[in-house]
Specification:
Residues 110-339 form the Heat-inducible transcription repressor HrcA C-terminal domain. By secondary structure, this protein is an alpha+beta fold. The chain contains 14 helices and ten strands. The strands form three sheets. It has a five-stranded antiparallel β-sheet, sandwiched between helices.
Length: 364
């Protein structure tokens, strides 16, 4: 999109006020509303002249000849790039809300991200989108064998995608006949041995390892464990790479822009077209991924989103992008709040994946 013509200070102030007023009211903006509602210190006639310049520049337009003016996609873009004023106090409020409502300790990553989406949707009134951490190779970080009951053992695996997988394993009856304390000791020894041998290896390659290395005392576990890990590897491969959790459809229903047809197309995109949505929000595997992305109206390549704005920020570990947090709403979006919310959530998730998931967490 070409850069709009240069605006003087008065024209910029009128554009700022027009965007702010339209965001709040969803009604076309007239010069009298700006003269009475904002401290522009000029007459209505002067404001009308400035609005005329903005219209000729393509930053405002009239939906009807007798109506006031509303911002165009270019007008919103100019506002976001040149006029937006971040609010440090709002940043603190969002961070406090996330810290109060979320707790990464003891949660699975999926649960944390789903709750993050719900919190963002409630705070913003828009649809919140969060991508699960994506890595090129899914490797084993930690493995634990836990006695459940009888001859059933729970195998829990933590992957470097910051997710956990678990499966119930039924060992031979000879194993279940051992005393509980003896079995617990054997399972801990075996867990330690497997972690030493397997940590950092791709899950898909583990099934091809030479299991004969197991001590003779544990040979009766080998075939069962190999089958269980093979099953986990298959489940991991069958999981779509482009995983997006979302929340906030109820909130966005309150926005007047979303007529029934538009909402239907948007719901279809969220529920059945996430592969199309993925390139707009995903950041994993892009070392130079922009920390903040904003798509406004026609800038969106997907037709159902061309009446929408998408604001997303990257969360990472060791400065490597893992996923993104986004807010999707009408172009009549309070961009200051949306940007603050996604950046604060991304910073929170960056701390979570860096500090909170070093060990094996509960969850499957």
């Amino acid at each position: 999109m070409e850069k709009p013509v240069q605006l003087n200070a008065r024209q910029q102030r009128v554009l700022w006020a027009t965007v702010r007023h339209y965001v709040m009211t969803a009604e076309p903006v007239g010069s009298k509303s700006l003269a009475t509602g904002y401290d522009l210190q000029v007459s209505s006639a002067t404001i009308r002249n400035a609005m005329g310049v903005l219209e000729r520049s393509g930053l405002l337009y009239q939906p009807h000849t007798s109506a006031g003016r509303i911002p165009s996609d270019s007008g919103y873009r100019f506002y976001v790039d040149d006029l937006l004023e971040p609010s440090p106090s709002l940043t603190r409020q969002v961070e406090a809300a996330l810290t109060e409502r979320l707790d990464w300790e003891g949660w699975s990553v999926e649960a944390l991200l789903q709750e993050t989406a719900q919190v963002l949707a409630r705070l913003s009134g828009y649809i919140a989108l969060v991508t699960l951490p994506q890595t090129h190779a899914v490797c084993l970080q930690h493995l634990q064998l836990v006695r459940v009951e009888g001859d059933q053992i729970l195998l829990v695996v933590m992957l470097d995608a910051y997710s956990t997988r678990s499966i119930l394993v039924q060992f031979p009856k000879a194993t279940s006949q051992a005393g509980k304390e003896q079995l617990d000791r054997e399972l801990q020894i075996l867990s330690n041995f497997l972690n030493h041998r397997l940590r950092g290896k791709p899950l898909s390659a583990i099934v091809d390892l030479e299991w004969a290395e197991l001590d003779r005392a544990f040979q009766h576990y080998a075939e069962t464990l190999q089958g269980a890990i093979s099953g986990l590897a298959q489940r991991t491969r069958s999981t779509p790479a482009s995983q997006i959790v979302f929340s906030g459809l109820a909130e966005v229903l309150r926005q007047p822009e979303f007529a029934s047809d538009q909402l239907h197309d948007l719901i279809y995109l969220l529920e059945d077209g996430r592969d199309q949505l993925w390139p707009l929000i995903a950041a994993a595997g892009e070392p130079a991924a922009e920390p903040l992305r904003i798509w406004i109206g026609a800038e969106n390549p997907l037709e159902p989103m061309q009446t929408c704005a998408l604001v997303s920020a990257v969360y990472s570990k060791d400065r490597k992008p893992l996923g993104s947090v986004g807010l999707l709403g009408p172009t009549r979006m309070l961009y200051e709040n949306a940007i603050t919310a996604v950046e604060s959530a991304a910073a929170y998730l960056t701390r979570a994946v860096t500090q909170g998931f070093r060990g094996l967490n509960s969850g499957t």
